[in-house]
Write a structure and sequence with these properties.
Layout lengths: L11 E11 L5 E4 L6 E8 L7 E4 L3 H5 L14 E4 L6 E5 L4 E3 L8 E10 L1
Antiparallel strand pairs: 1-8, 2-7, 3-6, 3-8, 4-5, 4-7
């Protein structure tokens, strides 16, 4: 038997790579990465208080109208954040909107990011 999930991609291609250097008080606005499957962020330098990366629930309806929640948890939250550490590599779906909070440390936050297309 053959199942669709048994198929292996023929190519995995890095379609773009760049660095982001956020000095004190700088941040990255909410965005996503079109025309690719996965995106990644490798934290070269990430000191304490350099700013969390925030991922937003991709279900637009949830942000417009949702039932009242007595207590937010990982399943009911509209935003999940992650505190980066040096050496972390985050890989996430490119359609996932994300932003980076303000860098409140005295040091630069240095990230190498890239996009991946699976063909």
């Amino acid at each position: 038997e053959h199942y669709a999930w048994d198929c292996k991609p023929e190519k995995i291609k890095i379609t773009g790579m760049w660095s982001v250097i956020n000095k004190k008080n700088s941040y990255n606005v909410r965005h996503f990465h079109p025309k690719c499957n996965l995106s990644a962020a490798y934290y070269v330098k990430a000191k304490e208080n350099c700013g969390k990366i925030k991922f937003f629930d991709p279900t637009d309806q949830k942000s417009m109208q949702s039932p009242f929640k007595k207590k937010l948890n990982i399943l009911s939250s509209e935003v999940a954040d992650f505190t980066p550490e040096e050496g972390d590599l985050l890989i996430f779906p490119s359609y996932l909107h994300h932003s980076v909070e303000q860098n409140l440390s005295e040091d630069e936050r240095i990230v190498i990011s890239f996009n991946i297309k699976i063909i």
